[in-house]
Amino acid sequence: MGHKTIFITGGASGIGRAVAERFGRAGWFVGIADINEDGMAGTAALIPAGFSSQHKLDVRDRAAWDTALAACAAASGGKIDVVFNNAGIPIGGRIVDVSTEEVERTLDINLKGVIWGAQAAYPWLKASAPGSCLLNTASAAGIYGVPGGSIYSATKFGVRSITESLDAEWKDEGILVRDLMPGFIETPLLDHAPNRQSNEDIRGRVTAAKLEISPVSAVADAAWAAVHGQKLHTLVGKTAKSLAFAARWMPGGLRKQVSGLGRPLGG
């Protein structure tokens, strides 16, 4: 079979769905993985018939990763060219206000899930190298931490580190490793509360802070460019680009600006 295959976690909605549609439109076979079966079916409906498969996957379950990837390869014709480590959840608020369960769940999904995904993806990507790719969803929160973002930023700094480490570790085997670093993106996650003690959704805080919300299609296009380009980190949106510029060229000013924030964004 001449087509290529991408396996996407968090494929039932948001960034995962947009990336699935983008690659499907380009003729790729798309393995859609999520815990939301109805959402996966909705994503599959956006992809040409016969060019997708659906796999119920909790990214916290290491063994389930092996099962899902093997099933995707069997459905697609035997190989996987790209694994998109995208599944993630939001969390925000002062570190003393988030519960133990919320912290552990975020670390397990956003960070450990990416580690398990990298481990499980490796043999498939090695088999389809050179040019195969592990693509991770990091965040602008992995550039510089802000008040109310300590837990989420910790996971996304971790994803950034994993990307950089594996880029060097797998280079000689022909496997590309890339990540996306979006700012605030128009997805259903914006309508979640940042933590259980909050009665305001994330969208309200972003709007109040006068930060831009980028269309999800921008992330899909960035994912395509990342897989086919040379950039290790791909910034998406004005917030991410401004933050990266300030962190590199004006770190003192950025620190002062962040320290002067009154109300934590995630609080």
TrEMBL record:
Q: A Gene Ontology molecular-function term?
A: oxidoreductase activity
Superkingdom of source: Bacteria
Q: Does the keyword Oxidoreductase apply?
A: yes
SUPFAM superfamilies cross-referenced by the UniProt entry = NAD(P)-binding Rossmann-fold domains (SSF51735)
Q: Which InterPro entries match?
A: NAD(P)-bd_dom_sf, SDR_fam
Q: Name one Pfam family in it.
A: adh_short
What keywords would UniProt list here? Oxidoreductase
**Would the keyword Cytoplasm be found if you checked this record's keyword annotation?**
no
Q: List the PANTHER family.
A: 5-KETO-D-GLUCONATE 5-REDUCTASE, ALCOHOL DEHYDROGENASE, PUTATIVE (AFU_ORTHOLOGUE AFUA_3G03445)-RELATED
Q: Which family does it belong to?
A: Belongs to the short-chain dehydrogenases/reductases (SDR) family.
Which protein, by its recorded name, is this?
Short-chain dehydrogenase
